[in-house]
Amino acid sequence: MKGKSVALLIILILVADQALKFYIKTHYTLGEEHNVAGSWFRLHFVENEGMAWGLKFGGGVGKILLTLFRLVAVILGTFYLNQIIKKKYHTGFIVCAALIYAGAFGNLIDSMFYGLIYSSSNPLTVATLFPAGGGYASFFHGQVVDMLYFPIIHTTYPSWFPITSWRGQEFEFFSPVFNLADSSISIGVIALLLWQKKFFPKKHIEPVVKTSAEINDEVRAV
Q1: Which end of the chain, C or N, has fewer beta carbons within 10 A?
Q2: Looking at residue 210, what DSSP letter applies?
Q3: Whole-angstrom Cα distance, residue 121 to residue 112?
Q4: Dihedrals phi, psi of 191, to nearest 5 degrees
Q5: Does 23 have pLDDT greater than 90?
Q6: 8 CB-near residues (< 8 Å, 6+ apart)
Q7: 36 — phi, psi (to 5°)?
Q8: Which residues are catalytic?
Q9: Is residue 150 a contact partner of residue 127, using CB atoms and an 8 Å limit?
Q10: E strand or H helix at 60, and its extent?
Q11: How far is Cα 143 from Cα 67, in angstroms, rounded to an integer?
């Protein structure tokens, strides 16, 4: 797979991810939700300070560490992608690596720059790009914008459920709110797990069979 094709794939993912985040950030109030396809696919605007899928990590200090980790991962990932392309690894493996790289890069942009270029989102007003009074946070303290929500199943645990404390409580699948960058990472990782044997086939070593003539020659030499 050529480097230009990999670069194009990464750019397309980044553009789609950032375009959707820009739209949500500047058109939705925090917590606003709209159905896209029935009740099982919704756009629900939330922001998180930490990891993918809304997970958090260690407050303000953890936020900086996480952003730095993403930055290092993207820098190292750039060199790694370049190497596997030059060495002509399996196309599927390169695509998976590019998906993971693009997803990490997409969320890194949020963490590094969104606090500088957007005003704060809240339940009453939408954010603006490049506000006159400056952004809502400093460099490296931006919040990741999430919006994709798929509550496919919403029910309650039945009375016969083995864990008694859960009986009668609400259950929802799938509850996390995420973004296109998270999806890109997840697709890349899952594809690697499913097709790793195809990407890295074991080399078949043919057994060496000696003929009787070769054996006789060796005996005579001794």
Answers
A1: C
A2: -
A3: 17
A4: -65, -40
A5: yes
A6: none
A7: -105, -45
A8: 146, 182
A9: no
A10: helix 59-86
A11: 10
**Can you list the alpha helix ranges (DSSP code H) found in 124-169?**
none
Torsion of CA 136, 120, 71, 96, to 10 degrees: -170
Task: Note the residue count of the chain.
Answer: 222
| C-alpha pair distances (Å), 169 with each of 39, 83, 172, 208 | 20, 51, 10, 66
Work out the number of other CB atoms within 10 angstroms of the CB of residue 47. 22
Backbone angles phi, psi at 209, to 5 degrees: -110, 120
Residue owning tokens 């409580």: 169
Structure tokens at 87: 């060495």
Angle of the 3-27 helix axis to the 91-117 helix axis, nearest 10: 30
CA–CA distance, 198 with 62 (Å, rounded to integer) = 38
Residue 33 and residue 126 in contact, taking contact as beta carbons nearer than 8 Å: no
CA distance 136 to 119: 5
For β-strands 41-48 and 33-37, DSSP reports them as antiparallel
| Tens-place pLDDT, residues 135-146 | 999 998 899 999
**% of residues, the chain, pLDDT over 90:** 60
User: Whole-model pTM?
Assistant: 0.83
At 111-139, the pLDDT tens digits run 999 999 999 999 999 999 999 989 999 99
What value, to the nearest 5°, has the Cα angle with vertex 36 and ends 31 and 40? 85
Q: CB-hemisphere CA count at 13 Å for 204?
A: 1
SS (H, E, C) 10-33: HHHHHHHHHHHHHHHHHHCCCCCE
Whether residue 105 has pLDDT greater than 90: yes
